[in-house]
Design goal:
Aminopeptidase, 10 strands, 307 residues, two-stranded antiparallel ribbon, alpha/beta, eight-stranded mixed β-sheet
Length: 307
């Protein structure tokens, strides 16, 4: 249903002007440190990986370097897997789940896969706890040629520079209460449309690619995560966030059409993870470990399938 609450920026039914976007940007405040919480953790792993700086955000190039970890033992014959987090910077376990995987489990897979791990694609969003970048652009709707989001364009250039075909891409996200309290109302205001209230699923779920769904791959990840935290149920209409449930805890989107990070390549095995950190029955550490479990479940499935 539509919601009559007015967002504090802009006029009803009118897309935002540049002045409105500036007013929105002025509300953003630094709430945590990318350098302290993320960059230091990435650099601490430099002895286990090749550390890559694949760009820096023009908003503040010193404050916001874009960093990735690449397998030391990179071999052309091994399949390559991309793990990305923090495309929506406010989604904390996407960032720290990627870091936790790199620190605790990546060594279990480096003999079988070339790994590229980009833990925080949107560091400004991480610091300000925002879904968008400072230009009110959603990086996770901007993975296409001539992207308006430098966060998205930089990651695409990194992948292109490797000159390889990805076998898999696992993109780590969260669905939070603030999606309905702040971010979707802001989206409606930005675009000059009515805000239609949605529901937040309580639990972990996956978003596969409707053009190449790979249900067994998704099922393996759900089974692994189930050992760590609960899986989101379908709502009374059989949906999760408005999309039909394909199997327990799995929905599908057309990732390329929507410009999602998971659609940046032609990898056959792709998924977006979604953790619910506001659940009364899940801790922040469980959310991080659910991300790790999803990655491991997916990699085990691919490895066993290829044997």
């Amino acid at each position: 249903m539509t919601d009559s609450r007015a967002y504090p920026i802009g006029r009803p039914h009118t897309p935002w002007s540049d002045a409105d976007k500036a007013a929105w940007r002025a509300r953003a405040q630094i709430q945590r440190s990318y350098q302290t919480e993320v960059v230091s953790a990435i650099r601490a792993l430099a002895n286990r990986f090749e550390l890559l700086q694949y760009g820096a955000l023009s908003y503040d190039t010193e404050r916001y370097p874009l960093l990735a970890l690449k397998s030391h033992d990179w071999q052309p014959h091994k399949p390559t897997v991309l793990i990305s987090g923090g495309v929506h910077g406010y989604e904390t376990s996407g960032v720290h789940g990627a870091l936790a995987f790199a620190a605790s489990r990546a060594q279990d897979y480096q003999a079988r896969f070339n790994l590229i791990i980009a833990p925080c694609v949107s560091p400004w969003g991480y610091e300000t706890i925002n879904r968008w970048n400072p230009n009110a652009v959603d990086p996770n709707r901007s993975f296409y040629p001539d992207s308006p989001a430098q966060e998205s364009a930089s990651l695409m250039r990194l992948v292109d520079s490797l000159q390889i075909e990805l076998l898999a891409h696992i993109d780590l996200h969260e669905t939070t209460d603030t999606d309905e309290l702040e971010f979707r109302p802001a989206l409606a205001a930005r675009d000059g449309i009515e805000y239609v209230k949605g529901t937040i699923p309580d639990g972990f779920y996956l978003v596969g690619d409707s053009d190449k769904p790979e249900p067994e791959f998704q099922s393996a990840m759900i089974a692994a995560v189930r050992q760590v935290t609960h899986i989101a149920p379908a709502d009374s209409d059989g949906n999760i966030i408005g999309s039909p449930v394909q199997q327990t805890g799995v929905i599908n989107y057309p990732t390329k059409k929507l410009g999602l990070c998971a659609g940046l390549s032609d990898a056959p095995f792709v998924t977006t993870t979604e953790v619910y950190p506001d659940s009364p029955t899940a801790t922040a550490e469980q959310c991080n470990q659910a991300q790790v479990a999803a990655i491991c479940g997916g990699l085990e499935y691919i490895s066993n399938r290829n044997n």
